[in-house]
Design brief:
The complex is a heterodimer of chains A (250) and B (169).
Chain A (H helix, E strand, L loop, with lengths): L2 H22 L8 H29 L5 H6 L10 H4 L5 H22 L5 H29 L3 H15 L10 H8 L10 H14 L22 H9 L1 H5 L6
Chain B lengths: L2 H6 L1 E2 L4 H4 L3 E2 L2 E5 H4 L2 E7 L2 E6 L8 H15 L3 E6 L12 H10 L1 E2 L4 H8 L16 E5 L7 E6 L5 E5 L4
Parallel strand pairs in B: 1-4, 5-6, 7-10
Antiparallel strand pairs in B: 2-3, 4-5, 8-9, 9-10
Classes of the chains: A mainly alpha (250), B alpha/beta (169).
């Protein structure tokens, strides 16, 4: 089995799985019916994309594990998602800020992954780009509406951006699997996405009358499996059915 | 039927009547051929090989469609194998003319061209036609509707809320 490729795929898929789970938590709890549906639609898109990634990972692993096993039955330290996506739905401003800060990265990433020499990854990227463009449009829209809204909505969005900013730098850290895959023309060099990312993010923040955080202190660790305390709680929800009723299918 | 199909997919004509019996479980007026999700259908030694592509990655209808296609061919006495393909990625351009008409009659506004679609979904222009009264005085309620492929609109003249099938290119 190509261990680097397997790890590389998990690095991509885990981000979307964990964010998808976070957005899925809003089912029946969104601030309005329409927003509730929008958030869960985003969740559905992300889960759809991760199925393709995990199916591919399962094929590479070739040890009898299925897409579900990989998604549902790993331990916390074996998840390699970035810290940003596991942050909780503190309030709607945090939920949208997290989505926005990830969407901008996600779209830039997929636009590069589309050029991958690996035809499976390229196909998944092509498909996902269409969906993720919608996500970014939706989340950017909310940054502007809340940022450039009332005094209170502005403050809440500013707080959310300030809180989550510390998790953005990790998006551009390379893992060993990343480096190996970039060398083979399969992976995306995330370090090269950074300038473009902050340019897009900053211009939306400016348009939203929000200030760009100045802090240079950034958190990291998710890509190495060292997570914030929030992931464990999320996984206990996510994995409950598979842990309690092993091998159940629906 | 369905001359458009021939252009973007590779389908044996003799299989069309069977494929045409299967519809999208979430939009029952639309057959999977009208939808453009059948990419390939060939008869090789009494075994039918089918390739399907999802509209959206997470479309929950795909598994059902796959089962329905299998059942339809087995009923007609064929062996069948079905593959899911992702590339080329599905586009709303593959929805047939018949499909667009069926959508509109069913109460779902068919997709506009890409530029117009962007204008409509950003709320810049009022161009999506109400499926109830035909007025273009309609507003976007939400970019995401009852399924991943639709957005929610409301007519400001007759007040009817309706779905708009988002353009995907």
């Amino acid at each position: 089995m190509n261990n680097n490729l397997y790890k590389y795929i998990l690095g991509i898929a885990d981000n979307s799985l964990i964010l998808g789970q976070r957005m899925g938590e809003l089912t029946g709890h969104g601030p309005s019916l329409e927003t509730d549906i929008a958030c869960t639609n985003i969740s559905l898109d992300l889960f759809g994309q991760v199925r393709s990634y995990y199916q591919y990972a399962a094929k590479i692993a070739g040890d009898g594990r299925t897409e579900d096993d990989i998604a549902m039955l790993r331990k916390e330290r074996e998840y390699v998602n970035v810290l940003l996506v596991e942050q909780p739905n503190t309030d709607f401003a945090h939920t949208m800020a997290r989505q926005f800060l990830f969407d901008v990265y996600h779209l830039l990433f997929l636009q590069e992954l589309e050029k991958s020499k690996d035809l499976n990854l390229s196909a998944i990227a092509k498909k996902s780009i269409k969906e993720v463009s919608y996500h970014q449009r939706f989340s950017s829209d909310w940054i502007k509406r809340l940022g450039d809204g009332t005094e209170e909505s502005h403050q809440k969005m500013q707080d959310a951006i300030d809180d989550l900013w510390t998790y953005t730098d990790e998006l551009f850290h390379q893992t060993e699997a990343d480096k190996a895959m970039v060398k083979e023309g399969i992976g995306v060099d995330v370090t090269k996405l950074k300038d473009n990312y902050y340019q897009i993010v900053n211009s939306v923040l400016e348009e939203s009358t929000l200030s760009i955080p100045k802090s240079k202190y950034f958190q990291k660790g998710g890509k190495q499996g060292i997570h914030t305390e929030h992931l464990g709680y999320l996984l206990s929800d996510l994995q409950y059915m598979q842990r309690t009723y092993p091998n159940m299918e629906w | 039927m369905n001359k458009l199909m021939i252009e973007h997919a590779d389908i044996d004509t003799e299989l069309i009547p069977i494929l045409d019996q299967v519809s999208d479980p979430e939009i029952p007026v639309l057959t999977i051929l009208d939808m453009g999700v059948v990419r390939y259908a060939k008869l090789v030694d009494n075994e039918v090989m089918i390739k399907l592509t999802p509209t959206y990655s997470g479309c929950p209808a795909m598994d059902v469609i796959s089962d329905d296609v299998k059942a339809a061919f087995e009923k007609a006495g064929y062996k069948v194998s079905i593959d899911l393909v992702l590339t080329p990625a599905w586009t709303t351009d593959w929805i047939s003319e018949e499909g667009r008409d069926a959508l509109e009659k069913y109460g779902i506004a068919p997709p506009l061209e890409a530029d117009a679609d962007k204008d409509a979904l950003l709320g810049n222009k009022r161009i999506v036609k109400c499926t109830n009264c035909g007025s273009q005085n309609t507003k976007l309620v939400s970019q995401f509707g009852s399924t991943a492929c639709k957005a929610l609109f409301q007519c400001e003249d007759c007040q009817e809320p309706f779905d708009y099938f988002k353009c995907l290119k």
